[in-house]
């Protein structure tokens, strides 16, 4: 079992123990959650391995020869088939390919551009992981808030049911009120059960990413970094998605230079030796130089150039597309940030107003100035407002984090 699989099995075991124990999750910072998720990201080792391989290709391109030398040996005689005069020839050759002018430098530039591309891909992958952790953390936090409110609602329903049940037994309330409060209790039990299941599922999904059931504290970053009025669009030029496309364009352009620098296959140079065994031959041993120069093919070169040029054109188009996507994402993030802040403020006021109203309705019900149904409706509206307020608060804190991610930065 590889280390990542072992870690996942271990973390799931911890999660199971935590769930069975019914413990409240320990919270940590968003950066801690991201670091844990990045350490478990399956593609991270592959990206690093590709970068190392590209650097190795660059080092190879600095060598004197583009490939390994070749040794060739041949043997001829006329004993079995031929004149049978005792003629024997041994021939050996040692040759190596050599760079065309500028080809080695162009090859090294392509490899270095590849390495820079993988560095940018790593940064982009980190941004993707951070966004996934944020989404999972938002769902888990909202699920926890739902569970808290559902528990409050259940405690309220049990308290009112006990009071109404006692009053019904002594004849102070009708059976209709008892049925209404029992329905409220049944609804609260069902809501609490659903909220508990939702929280468990949300935390489990987060644990798959980070290896831990801990929920990051989303408001920690926004408290240290107050919500900005908007998104810094100038930072978009350093967005990892743009950097990846820029590095790919750079690689395509370097590949085009390499194609132009190598219009034919690499030539070979080497030494050739011949040893002949024939009675009375005065030239039985000879040594020479071998040079092989493959001739360029205009048809093949036109195709290679066309492919390399088309790769540059495609990379330029992809870069323009990503620029537009990043710009649009920043606009949308800025709009969402402002909307989240407005919604949070409104939700806080609404929850405060409805909770005060629910308190007044409860006092009125206790003294007989309003019906139980009206009181229950007022309290249900207050619970709904609390739920909306909690959700708006989570969304507002998440919007600050998303604003940071929109500029290509993983929050510290």
From TrEMBL:
One Gene Ontology molecular-function label: efflux transmembrane transporter activity
Gene3D superfamilies: Outer membrane efflux proteins (OEP) (1.20.1600.10)
Protein name (record): TolC family protein
